[in-house]
Here is the input.
Amino acid sequence: MTRSGHEYIEGIRDGRQVYIDGELVSDVTTHPAFREAVQSIANLYDIANDPANRELMTYDSPKTGEPVNRAFTIPRSREDLVLRRKAIRRWAESAFDLIGRGPDHVAGFLVAFASALEVFARRGQRFADNNIVRFYEYVRENDLFVSYVIVPPQIDGSKPTH
Here is the structure.
């Protein structure tokens, strides 16, 4: 299933604790530092969820048959790659290429992981099946925006990071 922008916004009103300048943000969807970015991502979800964009932005889930975001396509052919690129391009154009880490970004990582299960199975099939496949399917079926942090938390700079 694909989520609407409204569903995305409601989904991040989940009690998470976000601080900015030492202030606890009660609602990231309305706080001046975050609300425009939240709306930009919500717009992407609305594009993907729009019935007029169904063929471009979604494909049928192999698990449920319901439409899921094309960013989660595991390419099996050149045509799959072309279709995935066109969907991601639609999002990029809608944001004037200014969203560098949108919902499609880590979706690409998960697609790569799920398409190379033999790598994860080297230490046991359970790692491929339970960790990779289940997580990939959960994120795909719930149309989640997964991200990561690349900046370490502030620490004592006089000590080595290890």
Notes: The chain has seven helices and four strands.
